Amino acid sequence: MIFELLAGNLTHGLLLGGVYGVATMGLSLIFGVINVVNVGHGQFIMVGAFVTLILFTALGLSPVIAIPVALIIGMALGFLFFYTVMRKLIKAPELASLLATFAVGILLEELAKLIFGADFRGYYWDVGKIILPFTTIPMSKLYAFIGSIAIALFLYFWFSKTRSGTAVRSVIEDSEGARVCGVNVDWIYALSFAIGIGITVMSGVLLTMFIPVGINPYMGGAYTLKAFVIAVLGGLTSPYGAFFAGLIFGLVENGAYTLFALIPGVAPFSLTVSLAFWMLFFLLLVKPTGLLGKK
Amino acid sequence: MALLRLENVTKRFGGLIAVNNLSLEIQEGEAIGIVGPNGSGKTTLFNVISGVFFPEEGRVIYEGKDITRMPSYKRAPLGLGRTFQIPRPFGSASVRENVATGAMFGTLAGKVSVDDCLEIADRYIQLVGLEEHESKEALTLTPVEKKMMEIARALAMHPKLLLMDEAMAGMHPKDIDKTVAFLKKIKEEEGISIVAMVEHIMRAVVGFAERVMVIHQGKKLVDAPTKEALEDQRVVDVYFGHAAGEGNAKG
Amino acid sequence: MKKNIVKYYPLIPVLAVYLIMFLIGFFMPGMWQMVALLAFYCALGQSWNIFMGMTGYVDFGYVTFIALGTYGMSLGITYFSQFEWLGMGIIVIGLILAMFLAALAALLEAAIALRLRGAYFAIACIGINEGLRYFIEGAKIWGGSEGLIFFGALTQSLGRETVNQLTTFWADFSVFVIAALAAFLNMHYMRSKIGYALTAVREDEDAAKVMGVNTTKYKTLAFLTSGLLGAAVGAMAWGLKLGHVYPGDVFVIHYTIECIVVVLLGGAGTLLGPVVGGLIYGLSKYWLAIIMPGFQLLIFAPIIIIIIVAFPEGVIGVLKQRVKRTALEKYIV
Amino acid sequence: ALAIDKVVIGHPACLSGKYAKAGEQAIGGVKACIDWVNNVYGGVLVAGKRIPLKYKYYDCESKKEGVTSLIERLITVDKVNVVFSAYSSGLTLSGAPVAERYNMVYMDHGGASDRIFQQGFQYIVQTIGPGSKYHVGTLNMFDHFDPKAKKIALAYEDSEFARMTMGGAEKHAKKLGKKIVFMRTYPKGVTDLTPLLSDMKAKKPDIVLGGGHYEDGQLFARQMSDLDINVKGLSLVASATLPAYYKALGGNIAEGVLGPSHWEYGVTFSPEGAMKVGLDWIGPGQDEFVKLFKKALGKDITPDYHAAEAGAQVLAYVKAVENMNSIDQDKVRASLGKLKFMSFYGGWDVDDKTGMQIGHSMVDMQWQKGKRVIVWPLEAATGKLIYPKPKF
Amino acid sequence: MLKVENIESGYGSMQVLWGPSLEVKKGSITSLLGPNGAGKTTLLMTILGSIEPWGGKITYEDREVTHLPTHKKVDLGISLVPEGKHLFVDMSVHENLVMGAYRKEALKNIDDSLELVYSLFPVLKERDRQKAGTLSGGEQQMLTIARAIMTKPKMIMLDEPSQGLAPKLVAEVFETIQKLEAEFGLTILLVEQNVVASLNAASYVYILHEGRIKVEGNPEDIRGSADIREAYLGI
Ligand SMILES: Nc1ncnc2c1ncn2[C@@H]1O[C@H](COP(=O)(O)OP(=O)(O)OP(=O)(O)O)[C@@H](O)[C@H]1O
Ligand SMILES: Nc1ncnc2c1ncn2[C@@H]1O[C@H](COP(=O)(O)OP(=O)(O)OP(=O)(O)O)[C@@H](O)[C@H]1O
Ligand SMILES: [Mg+2]
Ligand SMILES: [Mg+2]
Q1: Does domain E1-77+155-235 have CATH number 1.10.443.10?
Q2: Prediction ipTM score
Q3: pTM for the whole thing?
Q4: Do A40 and A285 contact (CB within 8 A), yes or no?
Q5: Is B171's Cβ below 8 Å from some Cβ in E?
Q6: Angle (nearest 5°) at CA A250 between A246 and A253
Q7: Do C139 and A281 lie within an 8 Å CB cutoff?
Q8: In CATH, B4-79+159-239 is 3.40.50.300
Q9: Which of C92, C82, C37 is nearest to D98 (CA)?
Q10: pLDDT tens across A29-76, in order?
């Protein structure tokens, strides 16, 4: 009985974790390359959610199509944001750019409210379910998971195998060194910022495939926090570390419930979430630079 | 009693043995030079002495006390001062504040007020010739200026043992001479009893050190009076190579 | 002696602003809660800045202290109001509890989290904050998610009139006092050995150690100071003033971000910065909410962006450069 | 006495932030009823004169700091005559000390916690019903239609409001002789309810009661359907009754879901009905209210219970002022304590001493083919309960 | 090959370069000497574009490149061995070298280049997999030079390449520099404090002082002038 529950929860947790992972990779990338803590991260996820919703409800397009659309919209937003604001702040103290992302986050929320209103919306994409002996999984969740794996692999490939990906890594290490190697550092800043935002907006699509309800202008804040924690868990500047950390976070968030439910007189779900956050703290005790973090 | 004694110190990084079973004694009032090929373990040795790393084996004895595992911040007040091969200024603080920080937490810690420290700082800044840059932020200095500042900062600690790690690399020959001169002067006048100097610039080593230890692959190769050490055939082989003929001992 | 007083000159503009704010609030009708709001932002900014400005460590979980302060006051009043002879003493007990909880948290966090560097530290603190919030809810301690509502208890033990005065005047007044105290401590630290030590920590922690700086000691000192001040603000501005506490309302990272915004608008590491930042932030939010309710944030966000692009080091950060080598230099830090 | 030329309602509304949705509705409701009072009713009758109502609102951004400073401004600078609370128990509580300090009547249409009224506030008066009563009617209804459905599962958000609802439901279920097979909370803002729902599924309940806010209510039903948890009855507080709920979930999942509500479009309160129970009637009829609401917001959205509560509160204030023939705060407060009336929102009566709402009863609605049908109490019902609930 | 005319630049509002002019002939070693803080590093950075010139003109292979961004200059075959090293400290030695060959032209010849630098600096081959940040100071210096060679440059500017190297290696570095010129036809602009070795290697010498060129000429002439030696070189 309890094992059945555990198995079911872990399965769902794994699927969710994949999405969490992708929802964090953009944050790590942007932090790694231009040292910007994007506190408006969740708001970009919100943009992705609305993109999916609009494509689905107004145009009848499947969320699968929304994935590339969101990437393009996200990258466009990223470039826009970079060239209008962030570029001027690269040489400023680190936290100045944090302030800018905070303001942009607010702006996105309020614009979304202006355009779409404050209602909680959702959509219904029925693509069937798989029935396992211990749980039932809607196909949409599975697609979201497959999508996140694909994006993570794609990013991994880009990062480690392509020329521009290598350039990004070198800029992360030493931008001046990259410059003398002939890397167009300013472009790499812009590009990785745009890709970071693009992936984030795209992860908004995956999230709504997973949870196609509760879409509203203020939904992003909660994801910002989770993404922060997952990013650090994964080693901060490593986007694929972020992906694995996302998996772990999802597993803990879903899995630990079953065990806490055995303790009488407590609220097991809240304890589960509590553990998911404290896990980071304990991990950092053992390894102060996160899972895949480098010294 | 020796001021500092290293007993069979070994420091490893993974499989690499950076310092290998090395022993060394430094007497009060000495000026010692440490040379050796790149990567032979000189900086690592300094790191072990100043407590940045703890050695895997062996002991570090300072003034008769075992300080092998003492945290580095406790060593400074005992009189261990150092400079860094790659300068590590407190970037946003002014040169004056940097140097004053040295005075504040060195051997004088607790005995002097903040204002006293600023006065002490002025003295050493003048000595190294940075008075023009006194109120500049340290990060805007050139590498050499940073090194000068580090010397001043370390001197302001009023150390008994000053460790200088390639403080004169990149310095103009004229400034090298100047620096060697004031180091000698300070050593006599201020009671900073000894200076250990890691240096590749023979002009500085020859000008300053009374005794030279040569390290090779983490091991002690030669430890002898300067002239003798530098003319040792083994040293010529591993350290000077065929460049020896070009008058390294002169500059 | 004179020299020593000169050192504290930069406190003059800070305290002057606080005094003016107080006078406006006290004498102009309807302004008290507004200046109280401004004082709240200034006090938080100033308190947060002590740690961040001096050590360079960004504590994203700072709101934990504010929240624990609120809980300290709430617990004190909830559990001690039954002893009638304590009278006003329950407020003192509340404050002591607030300090105690915050100190406990600060020391624990310092022992563990302060070993981390940079963003790892910043975000580990978020983890602690969120973890604590859900733990209170999950383990159902301190009223769990149902929080503590103690306005009634307060009224019962102190009487209606007194409570009116306490919640709508003295609670806010004490925020002013905390803000001034924070400014003073900040100044004092800056001008003493502590300031030098913390600058060294901020710039190069390893080098600082080799220079003889006991980095852990000084970091913990600044962390504790900053945390205790935050807890005091929480105890007063959220606890005593509002008469209730819910975990979901106080362990909210958004407030840390507000601290950061306030400090950065004014200038990190400066003394006058958090005051100016608090004024800019509080005033623009307040007035916009009045002039165009519902649309104020649409205007507010671009204002922030413009300010930060124009003054990347904060208003005072930039001003400080400007007044270098002028008569004003010794007042603006 | 000074001649009065207007009566102003002050409101630190939630136009942005997490309660923006409820805030917009409340403003619409207030505006609609003010419109009715000024233009249909002719103004508030005080001292033999008809005086227009005015409305002054600011945006507190759903934050406690905003509430305190804005309420004081409303009272002292704008010199309003009554203050309406923001939304939620926390924000309502935050504003209460300031209102008390200025001896200002403080009317609460958004804070459902019973405990607000145990704090000795003297000027607070509640329009929204207390949280502990939300699922009482629901349980009666299930007991009425299917006494054999004994296994009840309670799964609520971990917040004060929802916990209070859960407590009330638990007590009442036991009184009805039901068996609580599952009783758990989930934290606010959670992304995935799967672990909780799987656990609940294993307990095989007949009836599931739960919820807490808007977004989690949507998530709740959605994930029950994902996990194929089919039960005979499902009732969710706060979210299920909103039009957005049906739109978000689509027909299949929302069909048959129930929700308790203070008011729903379709309830049949009328002047005639009021007469029958011997209550005064004031205010627009239901359809008129809806029309005025749409006009006030300039948008084609249907008012929900947030709007109705806020609107009814305007009417209560008008009634209280007229009964006492004064806008003096203490007199109005006393008058409110005695007031008993009915409007499109239903009955309104508060406990004189605490100010807690006791006269308003809730209805239960069910989604049937995209329409909200009131199914309980039977006397207010506009349709018949579909039971058991169709499968997801 | 490279011509710098009346260049001016600095940091913030502080001017460092006050209009020095110099020329680097193709396939030669030109040496730039001067005391600490004279502005040598600033000059090299300005040439490469890391610091934006305030005034003056830079021509490279008869093309004006004054305001060209750095990466374009690297593409044209200008390479710098920076004073602060700027290695990718968390990448392995090998990865650093591969990064050196980032520009398309260099990528084509990467194998040859690798072989070349490994033969010039055998230590690097031994430490192939080690993280650059953990190399000793001297090893890092070698890696920096090697990485610059990997860009397949036509012209290399070296900012104090022998700094921190043991005498044996200093000699080797100078040999390498001369070899790069003689065997591979590279043009070299050399900034050094090692005046003697520098004068030996160079075919033309400039002396920069307080942001201005004070002396220029053949190494023999410079060496021969006691005044110059006394005033600027300290030898
Ligand atoms: N943190 C570390 N991790 C791994 N290896 C290291 C570390 N620090 C130094 N090493 C290695 O230890 C050896 C000794 O290094 P060290 O810096 O002590 O040399 P050095 O004698 O100071 O050389 P140089 O004259 O070039 O400065 C080198 O091979 C270096 O690569
Ligand atoms: N980042 C900086 N910000 C402000 N001033 C700087 C900066 N870097 C260098 N300077 C100043 O510019 C002047 C010239 O510096 P530069 O590094 O060009 O000298 P250099 O000739 O290379 O000296 P060295 O031989 O010591 O390397 C110095 O006075 C230095 O203080
Ligand atoms: Mg070394
Ligand atoms: Mg230089």
Answers
A1: no
A2: 0.89
A3: 0.90
A4: no
A5: yes
A6: 135
A7: no
A8: yes
A9: C37
A10: 898 888 888 999 999 999 999 999 999 998 989 999 999 999 999 999
